[in-house]
Amino acid sequence: MSASSDDAQFMQEAIRLGLLHLGQTSTNPSVGCVVVRDGKIVGRGTTAVGGRPHAEPQALAEAGELARGATAYVTLEPCSHHGKTPPCADALIASGVSRVVISVTDPDERVSGRGIAMLRDAGIVVETGLLEEEGRHSLAAYLTRQTKNRPYVILKLAVSQDGMIGRMGEGQIAITGPAARAEVQQLRAETDAILVGIGTAVADDPELTVRIPGLQGRSPVRIVLDPLLELPLTSKLVRTARQVPVIVVGREEVFGSETGEQDLPPSVLPDISPTRGEIDSLPASVQNVDLGTSGQAQPISPLVGEMPGRAEGGIPTTNANETTAQLESRRQALESAGVEVVYCHPYHPEQLLPALASRAISSLLVEGGAKTARLFLEAGYVDRILLYQGPGTIGQGGIETPIRKTDIPSDFKHVGTRIVGDDSLDEYEREV
Ligand SMILES: NC(=O)c1ccc[n+]([C@@H]2O[C@H](COP(=O)([O-])OP(=O)(O)OC[C@H]3O[C@@H](n4cnc5c(N)ncnc54)[C@H](OP(=O)(O)O)[C@@H]3O)[C@@H](O)[C@H]2O)c1
Questions:
Q1: pLDDT per residue over 6-37, tens digit each?
Q2: What is the percentage of the chain residues whose pLDDT exceeds 70?
Q3: Does residue 260 register a pLDDT over 70?
Q4: Cα 374 to ligand 1 centroid, rounded to whole Å
Q5: Is the dihedral of CA 392, 396, 400, 404 positive or negative?
Q6: Lower CB count within 10 Å: N or C terminus of the chain?
Q7: From ligand 1's centre to the CA of 88, what distance in Å?
C-alpha cells in the first residue's frame, strides 16, 4: 500500500472515531484522532462526551512513548490557545510526534491557522486537507454554527407512494417500516435538538425520544413551534418533559412581550460548553439503487392507539380571542410541568436559529409537519434532506409532502438512494 493510501485509511479511521460522539459534545466539535507508529495505530481518541477532553490528548495518552516520531491524524486543526484545557497543539509538540495530518482547518478566526503554525514552528511536518469532504461532513454541525451562527438543519420526512406525509385528522400514520424508524432514532441520538410544529405535536402526540436499547440517554432536546401554547398538558412531550427537555417556542407578540432573542429566559439546557478552542462566544456508505415507483402500493392505515388529532376534538383548542391571562395561565401550566417556554417568533427561523445556536444547539432535526418543513425550506435554512419513501399510498384526505424528489432545490447534491427495509431513502445535501 502506498504512503498516501495509508494516510487516507488512517484519516478514515479518525473520521469514524469523530462520528462516535456526534450530538454529545455540546458546542465543541466531535473530533477524531489516531496516532500511527510504523504503520500501526498506537493511540485513538474522540472528543469526550460533554466536549472535553479533546481527542488529541486522549490519543497521545494511549500512545505514550510510542508517540515519539509518530504521525497524528486529526479531523480538525488542533486548538492553539489556553481555555479550560491546554492547547492540543502544545500536547502534540510535547509528545514528540514528527508529522500531523489534518483533514479540516478550523474556520474560527481565533484558531484558524494558528494551531498549524505552532506545530510547524516546532519543526513538525503538517499536511492539511486530507479527505476534506468527508471531514467537513463529519464536522458539519460545528462548521455551520461557527460560520453561519445557526445550527446545521436536517429535514427528515416520510412520504407515501402518492406523495403524502399523513392524513388529515388521523394522527400518526405508519408510512415507513421498522428499519427506517430505527435509522431515525439513531439520527436523533446524533443530533442536539429535534423540532416539530404544533400541528404535528397535536395530531401525532409524538415522544421524539431515542428508544434504541443502550442509547436512551441520548435523546435530543425537543422543540415545538407553538405560538399560542396549545401543546396539551396530557401530551407525551409534556409528560416526559422532566426526563428530556422540551422547549415550546411561543409567539412574543401574543404575550405583548418586548423580549428579544438575546433576552430568552434561562435555559433548561446544560450550560454552554466552550468550543474546541474554549471560545465562550459563541454516515455510512451509500448504496446507489434505481428504485423507480412501480412497486405494489398498499393503502396505509393509522397506527393503533394513537391520540386523536384536532379534527376529532382530541385536544383543547384555542382561538385568537383568548385573553393574555388565559395564555399566561397556559404558560404557567406548561412551566409547572417542566416545559421551558421561550418567546421568539416561531415562524421566523432567521431569529429562532441563532437563538438556538447561542444555547449550545449545533444540529437540529426538523421532523415536520408539512407547514413547518415548508417554512424551513422556503427560508433556505435546510442543509440536508432525508426523504424516506414507503411502499403504501394514503389517498383521499392526504397531506401533501412539502418537497418531492423532483423539486429538490438545485444547490442540493443528491448523495444517493438506499434501500431501508421495505422503504427507500433519498439523501440530499448542500455544501457546508
Ligand atoms: N410523514 C412525516 O414525515 C411526517 C412528519 C411529521 C408530521 N407529519 C404529519 O403532518 C401533519 C401535520 O402537518 P401540519 O403542516 O399540519 O403541521 P405542523 O407543520 O407540525 O404545524 C403547523 C401548525 O403551525 C401553524 N403555522 C402557522 N403559520 C405557520 C408557518 N409559517 N409555518 C409553520 N407553521 C405555521 C399552522 O397553523 P394553521 O393551520 O393555522 O396554518 C399549524 O397549526 C400530521 O398529520 C402529521 O402526522 C408527517
A1: 999 999 999 999 999 999 998 899 999 999 99
A2: 83
A3: no
A4: 9
A5: positive
A6: N
A7: 46
Nearest-CA residue for ligand 1 atom 28 is 347
CA distance 16 to 280: 27
Helix (H) or strand (E) holding 36: strand 32-37
CA of 375 to the centre of ligand 1 (A): 10
pLDDT score of 364 more than 60: yes
Closest CA to 359 of 380, 338, 331, 340: 340
Q: Which amino acid is it at 73?
A: Y
Give 228's contacts (C-beta < 8 A, 6+ positions apart): 198, 250, 251, 254, 318, 322, 327
CA distance 322 to 329: 11
Active-site residue flag, 109: no
Ligand 1 atom closest to the CA of 402, numbered from 1: 15
Query: How high is the pLDDT of residue 314?
Result: 32
Pocket of ligand 1 (CB under 6 A): 157-158, 165-166, 172, 175, 196-200, 203-204, 347, 367-372, 375, 399
**Rounded distance, CA 274 to CA 338, Å?**
26
Main-chain dihedrals φ then ψ at residue 428, nearest 5 degrees? -130, 145
In angstroms, what is the span from residue 203 Cα to ligand 1's centroid?
Answer: 9
Residue 417 near residue 389, CB atoms below 8 Å: no
